[in-house]
Design goal:
This protein has 399 residues and is an alpha+beta fold. Strands 3, 4, 5, 6, 7 and 8 form a six-stranded antiparallel sheet that branches. It starts with a strand and ends in an 8-residue tail after the last helix.
Length: 399
């Protein structure tokens, strides 16, 4: 969220900042002193740092793209509380860009458009905050859930970002905006299409969430949803909301990050499953008799549900410990739906080509808004919180 603003005296700004509206913003209304999505420490501390000054010793600044060489470092995008991509300003036009800074490889630096001006950038942050708080133009979304609410939120957010005066020129190596594949940079398309997904489900009855009727069927295909009969549920699974969800809503059979066990292991107690696995001499949790096997994760882990409480946990095969995965089956289903939607969106928008960390952080934020158990802060380096960790697995290409 936006906090107080900071300003920079005109005589402390880098001399290449000559764009009048930019000067007026920096010396007048200012920029957010602190925000979850970005910060502007280089601008506040030094008035902007030329890109050539950021290169490693011995790097040939002559290999920089001429447009990139003339830009100033003014801030950083943030993800999960850490600085990620650099925010660069064109002091002559006021255009704002992002870049992944390779300090020893100047020829690889490619500036991606972020905002047409600092005025617009500050406005985008305000609009994102207003959406989170359901105020301003987003007040009509307060208390609303379902697919219509998701679509309306996407429309409103997209409109907010489109309203800025983007212009057509001044975008350096990115070329004229009229030639871009998408009218909005990927960073704001992530905000407009992924953040609204948190609205799809409302509060549940005994579970965290109530998914819209047919949501999973529509996403995964009706034939790919497993709904066990009541008689197939083990007696130890006494948590009535979990029983209703499994038999009435079901879970997708599609193996993405999670896959249901086959008939031989689905909905057996962990103790029974372990006893039937030949050659497995590993340990089991002390409460294995009340943990019901549900499926597996792609990282060689299995998912169990507590028969009495409905809490979902994961365990490594042969381990005697379990770690919370999701609050319950409803938030597991939401997580699988969220991941499937993200995969569809990424195929269309190619978010991960330049903004992987930002996409991952947004996915974690969306999941945490409906399931705090899934995104509990790790207690120590050995406390592996599955969904936040795998969403951020850029090397593994999870998103």
């Amino acid at each position: 969220m936006t906090t107080s603003a900071f300003t920079v005296p005109a005589d402390e700004l880098h001399p290449s900042i000559v764009h009048t509206p930019t000067l007026r913003r920096l010396t007048g209304a200012g920029l957010p002193a602190r925000h979850a999505l970005m910060r502007f420490a280089p601008l506040a501390a030094s008035g902007g740092v030329p890109v050539p000054a950021l290169l490693a010793a011995g790097a040939d600044a002559g290999k920089l793209d001429p447009h990139v060489a003339g830009l100033l470092l003014v801030g950083h995008l943030r993800a999960d509380g850490e600085d990620t991509l650099e925010i660069l300003l064109d002091g002559a036009t006021g255009r704002v860009f992002t870049v992944c800074l390779f300090e020893d490889a100047p020829h690889l630096l490619e500036a991606h458009p972020l905002a047409p001006s600092l005025d617009a950038l500050a406005g985008f942050l305000t609009q994102t905050d207003d959406f989170t708080a359901r105020r301003g133009r987003f007040a009509s979304l307060a208390g609303r859930t379902g697919t219509d609410a998701v679509a309306e939120a996407e429309r409103l957010l997209s409109a907010a970002f489109h309203e800025a005066d983007w212009g057509d020129d001044g975008w350096g190596e990115a070329g004229a905006r009229s030639g871009w594949e998408h009218a909005l940079p990927a960073y704001w398309r992530i905000a407009a299409t992924v953040r609204p997904l948190a609205l799809v489900a409302g509060p549940g009855d005994g579970l965290r969430l109530a998914l819209p009727q047919g949501l999973l069927d529509e996403e995964f295909g009706a034939d790919d949803i497993a709904r066990p009969t009541l008689s197939a549920l083990p007696p130890v699974l006494t948590h009535e909301p979990t029983r209703r969800f499994l038999t009435e809503v079901g879970l997708p059979r599609t193996e993405t990050m999670f896959g249901l066990w086959g008939d031989e292991d689905l909905l057996r107690t962990l103790a029974e499953s372990e006893a039937g696995r030949s050659g497995d001499d590993g340990a089991t949790p002390v409460d294995a008799d009340r943990l019901v096997t549900l499926g597996s994760l792609v990282h060689d882990m299995e998912v169990v549900v507590d028969g009495g409480t409905g809490l979902l946990s994961w365990r490594e095969y042969g381990s005697d410990t379990t770690t919370p995965l999701n609050a319950d089956v409803s938030t597991l289903a939401f997580t699988l739906w969220l991941y499937s939607r993200e995969q569809r969106l990424d195929r269309e928008h190619r978010f991960t080509s330049a903004f992987y960390e930002q996409l991952a952080a947004t996915m974690v934020e969306v999941l945490a808004s409906v399931d705090p158990v899934a995104c509990l802060p790790a207690r120590d380096e050995d406390d592996f919180r599955y969904w936040p960790e795998v969403f951020h697995d850029e090397a593994g290409g999870v998103l």
